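Explain this record to help learners:
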Amino acid sequence: MKCAICSTAYKYYEKLDPSKAEIRRFLKEKVLRIEDLIKQATKEQLKRCFLGFTEAIEQLEQS
């Protein structure tokens, strides 16, 4: 999840350290929730962040 947050921070032209405190600060400053970031993320960003999870879903879809 941290990579999706950092990718979204990039949209705001901010370099974000993937620590919990920095993520909380960023979300509070931008008045965002984790759910908002997931909605804003592209499919490719989500795939990179949840690689194992998306691979498992793709395997289930193929069987």
The CA atoms of residues 35 and 41 lie 10 Å apart. The chain has a mean pLDDT of 78.
